[in-house]
Amino acid sequence: MSTARIDPRMTEDCLFLDVIVPKKVFDGARSRIKRRQSNGAPVVVWIYGGGYTGGSKGGSGNPSGLIASSQAGGGDGIIFVAMNYRLGAFGWLAGPSLQAAGGVSNAGLYDQRLALQWVRDHIHLFGGDPKRVTVMGESAGGGSIVHQITAYGGQRGVPFQQAISQSPGYLPISSYYVQENTTQAFLSLLNVSTIEEARNLSSTSLMVANAQQVAASRYGGYSYGPVVDGIFVPALPSVLLNAGQFAKHVKVMVSHMLSEGPYFTPPNVQTDDELEAFIQLNTPGFPQELVNYVVKTLYPARYDGSQLYTSPIERTILFITETSFVCNNYFLNKAYGNQTYAYQFAVPPGFHGFDIPYTFYNGQPTNQTAGMIAPVGVALQTYLTNFIMTGNPNGRGMPPFPMQGKNASMNSIGTTIQRVKDDTSNQRCAWWQKALFA
What are the Carboxylesterase type B domain coordinates in residue numbering (predicted)? Predict the structure, then answer.
């Protein structure tokens, strides 16, 4: 791979924020400071997705639609903040060799935490209320939020009060063996053998090796992401949530797509043997008896209508959908006693990421929004901004949006809005939460 393949905008000096403030809020900030008034506008902080290897603070969409939605009732509106965080090897290199050389695993999570702390400490200067901060993110952004909620096992609190986690995605990487293999593969691409040698190379060399490693990732994978490090991530989030080791005061909204898995499903993983090999490839050290249980009991090869799939490829899609995305919502819902707001985005085809143009819908036709159903975008943004402003998505003129509750129900947002059973509440996700493979 030549350096010409590297995005010219790419730099490790990337830790910047965008702060977008309605004029009335900004104009009133100085007077509130002079009067020592603590109240201010609600704030939402966006964490973008991209498999922990791609994306940027401005890449998800224009937040003007969200801000306008927050002003629909005549209020001043919300403040929108978007952060960058380091990606790929720059943000997620991990393992014993890195730590022995004085490196820090999960640098991307620390970047996010620093940005959130900055918002807490300084947003009042822009007219925002540091006690009304919602963190929102999709895919890797949603997965990052799960890790922020469980950071330090819940011992240090969090610099936000609410969270909206959309399609939270991450692989449960607890094995130092896996972390070390990824690090050694990166060093090999650099033609060095130690972290110290890598530190003496140019940033361009590091970016090229990172791009090569990410490009060579398995089908549907990205090589990098959060890992158990014993500090920021003392254990897998599913384990921490189950043990009550998380920030319990946070108000939570979660979502998932109608079908998260197709983009990430290798077309050649269909038979039992192929699914077993896929599990072992992605989770080295996964005990064979557990592999057998997953393949034979959790996702049996029965296509007679008794399961949620009727073909081998649909079985693999469900496996990836649950293990990489939707079970993460189950873990959150259960941890908060089902006192959460849950929705499924079901506008066809309902694939991963298809909700982002709706989250950032602003009424302006673009290539990204072509074919969108405008009323759905308006409805979704109304639910989101109601939650950001009040901690409750309900509002005048909208279909009811109850908490998930003991019956584990959710709003299905499609061409219509219906109340349905939450499909993340199932025994398969309950089994994955045990993390017996870790």
Answer: 10-432
Q: Which of 69, 97, 139, 165 is catalytic?
A: 139
**64 annotated active-site:** no
**139 labelled catalytic:** yes
What pLDDT digit, counting tens, does each position of 71-120 carry?
998 999 999 999 999 999 999 999 999 999 999 999 999 999 999 999 99
Per annotation, catalytic residue among 138, 260, 276, 322? 260
3-state secondary structure the chain: CCHHHCCCCCCCCCCCEEEECCHHHHHHHHHHHHCCCCCCEEEEEEECCCCCCCCCCCCCCCCHHHHHHHCCCCCCCCEEEEECCCCHHHHHCCCHHHHHCCCCCCHHHHHHHHHHHHHHHHHHHHCEEEEEEEEEEECHHHHHHHHHHCHHHHCCCCCCCEEEEECCCCCCECCHHHHHHHHHHHHHHHCCCCHHHHHCCCHHHHHHHHHHHHHCCCCCCCCCCCECCCCCCCCCHHHHHHCCCCCCCCEEEEEEECECCHHHCCCCCCCHHHHHHHHHHHCCCCCHHHHHHHHHHHCCCCCCCCCCCCCHHHHHHHHHHHHHHHHHHHHHHHHCCCCCEEEEECCCCCECCCCHHHHCCCCCCCCCCCCCCHHHHHHHHHHHHHHHHHCCCCCCCCCCCCCCCCCCEEEEECCCEEEEECCCCCHHHHHHHCCCCC
Q: What is the pTM of this model?
A: 0.95
To which residue do tokens 């649950």 refer? 322
Tokens 């895919």 -> residue: 139
Q: What is the pLDDT of residues 197-225, one digit of tens each?
A: 999 999 999 999 999 999 999 888 889 99
Sorted by where each starts, the structural domains of the chain and their CATH numbers stand as 12-172+226-267+324-430 (3.40.50.1820)
